[in-house]
């Protein structure tokens, strides 16, 4: 098996279960159109093209757990086998649509072009007593830029002023420890003052540490820890849907605290969506601007601790941080 094939042999989060009910849904998966629908055997993912006259199956409908093409009504089951050609009398000829592995876990649909034996990774608080909200996003960008954006603490003063940071420009000396290993890298921030942004004031107490982590193949996680334990966390699964679109599916996570936890979780989602929109704007601006000649390569500044390691992990290489922790001091 080649490196590339091996790297494809994993699950990718592609949609929220709640978005696939009665109607089929088209997604782009590594640049290829797929249709997701609920078959008799559960969630199914097929190449979204009828072999007959190449119409998008996702514009058809689901009938009895099979997908019906809107043009001549050919039907396909969850494995992609053609089961009906309306009007045809006699033995069924064999036609197939390519099928992909598809499973659902914790309200999220995962697809693979291989046949992974392992379960998909869900989020950083798996198995803990938590409340979650699930979110989805679409951004004009590249996975590396979108992942770095989620983990980058130094843009929050500008892009999210007032929301994640206070309105004053006062900064505090913070210690950052970067550690890593095969398929992951993380930055742990300690010594931060209580944050003055709206989200922190509403949802957090005093913060003791912040962790930003990247995991293979495109997972970005943030954990905010307080004196009493975890205050907030997010895990975002990012993937390159096509050349210029990053699709994200994620969990917003808080500790279970009875009704308080539920209220916080309720408030977190709309606030988080505002932050997401602010990020979408800068990422789109960068993506539009990258097409001009010289220089299209971003400069890796002294505070961009994770960029090179994220790139290495995405290429299937060992990140430099695996050789030992790196410690930085910055003003945040
Ligand atoms: S194009 Fe799909 S049935 Fe003819
Ligand atoms: Fe951001």
Automatic annotation (TrEMBL):
<keyword id="KW-0560">Oxidoreductase</keyword>
<protein>
    <submittedName>
        <fullName>Rieske 2Fe-2S domain protein</fullName>
    </submittedName>
</protein>
<keyword id="KW-0479">Metal-binding</keyword>
<keyword id="KW-0001">2Fe-2S</keyword>
<dbReference type="GO" id="GO:0046872">
    <property type="term" value="F:metal ion binding"/>
</dbReference>
<dbReference type="InterPro" id="IPR050584">
    <property type="entry name" value="Cholesterol_7-desaturase"/>
</dbReference>
<dbReference type="InterPro" id="IPR036922">
    <property type="entry name" value="Rieske_2Fe-2S_sf"/>
</dbReference>
<keyword id="KW-0408">Iron</keyword>
<keyword id="KW-0411">Iron-sulfur</keyword>
<dbReference type="InterPro" id="IPR017941">
    <property type="entry name" value="Rieske_2Fe-2S"/>
</dbReference>
<feature type="domain" description="Rieske">
    <location>
        <begin position="11"/>
        <end position="111"/>
    </location>
</feature>
<dbReference type="GO" id="GO:0051537">
    <property type="term" value="F:2 iron, 2 sulfur cluster binding"/>
</dbReference>
<dbReference type="Pfam" id="PF00355">
    <property type="entry name" value="Rieske"/>
</dbReference>
<dbReference type="GO" id="GO:0016491">
    <property type="term" value="F:oxidoreductase activity"/>
</dbReference>
């Amino acid at each position: 098996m080649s490196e590339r094939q091996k790297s494809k042999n994993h699950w990718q989060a592609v949609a929220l279960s709640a978005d696939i009910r009665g109607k089929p849904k088209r997604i782009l998966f590594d640049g290829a159109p797929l249709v997701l629908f609920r078959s008799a055997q559960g969630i199914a993912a097929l190449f979204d093209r009828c072999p007959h006259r190449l119409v998008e199956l996702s514009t058809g409908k689901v009938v009895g757990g099979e997908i019906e093409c809107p043009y001549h009504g050919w039907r396909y089951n969850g494995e992609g086998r053609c089961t009906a050609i309306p009007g045809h009398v006699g033995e069924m000829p064999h036609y197939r649509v390519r099928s992909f592995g598809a499973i659902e876990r914790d309200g999220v649909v995962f697809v693979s072009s291989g046949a992974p034996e392992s379960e998909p990774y869900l989020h950083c608080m798996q198995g803990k007593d938590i409340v979650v909200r699930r979110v989805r996003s679409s951004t004009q960008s590249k996975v590396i830029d979108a992942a770095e954006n989620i983990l980058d603490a130094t843009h929050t003063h500008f892009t999210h002023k007032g929301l994640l940071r206070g309105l004053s420009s006062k900064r505090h000396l913070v210690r950052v420890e970067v550690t890593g290993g095969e398929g992951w890298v993380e930055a742990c921030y300690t010594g931060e003052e209580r944050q003055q942004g709206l989200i922190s004031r509403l949802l957090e107490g005093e913060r003791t540490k912040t962790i930003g982590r990247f995991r293979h193949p495109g997972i970005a996680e943030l954990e905010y820890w307080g004196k009493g334990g975890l205050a907030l966390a997010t895990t975002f699964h990012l993937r390159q849907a096509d050349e210029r679109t990053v699709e994200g599916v994620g969990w917003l996570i808080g500790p279970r605290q009875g009704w308080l936890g539920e209220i916080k979780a309720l408030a977190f989602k709309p606030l988080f969506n505002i932050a997401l929109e602010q990020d979408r704007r800068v990422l789109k601006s960068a993506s539009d601007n990258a097409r001009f000649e010289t220089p299209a390569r971003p400069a890796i500044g002294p505070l961009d601790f994770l960029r090179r390691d994220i790139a290495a992990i995405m290429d299937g290489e060992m990140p430099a941080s695996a050789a030992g922790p790196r410690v930085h001091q910055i003003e945040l």
